[in-house]
Amino acid sequence: MAESGFNNRHDYEAPAPSRPMVAAHGLKLSPLSFGGAPIGNLYAGVAETDAAQAIAHAWHRGIRHFDTAPYYGYGLSEERLGAALAGMPRASYTLSTKVGRLIETADDRPHLADGFDVDGRQAVFDYSRDGVLRSVESSLRRLRVDRIDVLLLHDIGALTHGAQHPRILRQALDEALPTLAELRSQGICSAIGIGVNEEAVCLDVMPQFDLDVIMLAGRYTLFEQKDSERVMGEALRRNIAIFAAAPYNSGLLGASDAPGSMYNYAPADAPTRERAQRFYDICAQTGTSVGAAALQFPLFHPAVATVVCGMRSVSEVYSATSRLETTLPAELWARLREADLLADSAVTP
Predict the structure, then answer these.
(1) Residue 111: what pLDDT?
(2) Domains in the chain and their CATH numbers?
(3) Residues 247 and 219 sit within 8 Å (Cβ to Cβ)
(4) Structural contact between residues 201 and 158, judged by C-beta atoms closer than 8 angstroms
(5) Burial tier of 85 (Cβ tally within 10 Å: 0-12, 13-18, 19+)
(6) For residues 194 and 135, what is the distance between their CA atoms, to the nearest angstrom?
(7) Quick check: 95 and 148 in contact, CB under 8 A?
(8) CA 185 to mean position of chain CA atoms
(9) Alpha helix (H) ranges present in the chain?
(10) CB contact set of 114 (below 8 Å; sequence gap of 6+)
(11) What is the Cβ-side half-sphere exposure of residue 320, based on CA atoms within 13 angstroms?
(12) Residue 65, Cα to own-chain centre: how many angstroms?
């Protein structure tokens, strides 16, 4: 049944010599994870059959960790993952999903209000104990499983909540995270953590609550490391596994020939695109793929357990797994350092 290619490599070996277990819970993840936001109709609709084929192809190509959230398509991503993975042995893959929002019916929600091409639903923040329990119950139903390997508290932080951040952080520490710890003790999940886009909130939480995992989107990437230096160091010290998400920085380094037009979920400004072009120039000079370099780069850091890449089609799955298999020359990393495009703290072979 398995196809030739990535899944036939010895135990899905990552470019780095080894991958950390998720804290003390023994979860060994595939180095590349399927990011489920795109199959929640992010920015554009995805046909049911295309989503199902992408998930199945990912499994056959050796991707064995699948990440999603209720927010992604207001439950649609979870529903599609649950349906597509229902025929796979449960022990053959791991799942992460998130809490912090509840899904409600909303016939009058503006189309694409949050970027998801889904009508009749909306997501509302709820970091209360009851909200966490309701969210997990709904996720289990949509995913068609009785346990979730990793549960993450989603989108706490000042970037998301602005002036409400102190109140939200207090509720996260007093209610949401303790509730996740209870669910872990009950066997509903194996590991818990936070899923965020900013370093500051990670540094706020780590000294106050023991985490197993931090999913950090767009901060430890080939394009930038300056806004993750402290959290990466603390994660190593505290034995917290990093899930490095958004390795292309919203598509900035995702295309094969030139920088993309987006960065951090917004249009990239001219200086950002000019800096991105320097990566393309050096990769061209060394005969390498920018996408392959961006996908593999986070995996060299010893704190990183997996890199989470959003995918919506068979072709995107094939592209990502092929990029992971691509051999990159040592000259590439030396040239990037010489051009001052990597921070001193960046880990390379």
Answers:
(1) 81
(2) 27-338 (3.20.20.100)
(3) no
(4) yes
(5) buried
(6) 15
(7) yes
(8) 24
(9) 48-60, 76-85, 129-143, 158-161, 165-171, 177-185, 199-205, 229-238, 270-285, 290-296, 314-325, 330-338
(10) 71, 123
(11) 30
(12) 10
Q: Are strands 266-267 and 262-263 parallel, antiparallel or unpaired?
A: antiparallel
Residue whose tokens read 């996260």:
172
Please give the backbone phi and psi of residue 325, each rounded to the nearest 5 degrees, phi first: -80, -15
Q: Is the pTM of this model over 0.85?
A: yes
β-pairing, 94-99 vs 65-67, is parallel
Q: Six-digit token pair at 159?
A: 């970037």
Task: Inform me whether the pLDDT recorded for 157 exceeds 60.
Answer: yes
Residue-wise pLDDT tens digits, 158-205: 999 999 999 999 999 999 999 999 999 999 999 999 999 999 999 999
**252, two tokens:** 């900035």
Question: Which tokens go with 9?
Answer: 């490599």
In which residue are the tokens 């900035």 written? 252
Who's near 107: CB < 8 A, 6+ residues apart?
Answer: 119, 120
Backbone angle region of 62, left / alpha / beta, with phi > 0 → left and psi within -120 to 50 → alpha: left
Active site residues: 67, 72, 98
Residue-level length of the chain: 349
Separation in Å, CA 144 to CA 51, 141, 319: 17, 5, 28
Cβ–Cβ < 8 Å for 171, 127:
yes
CA 96, chain centre distance (Å)? 9
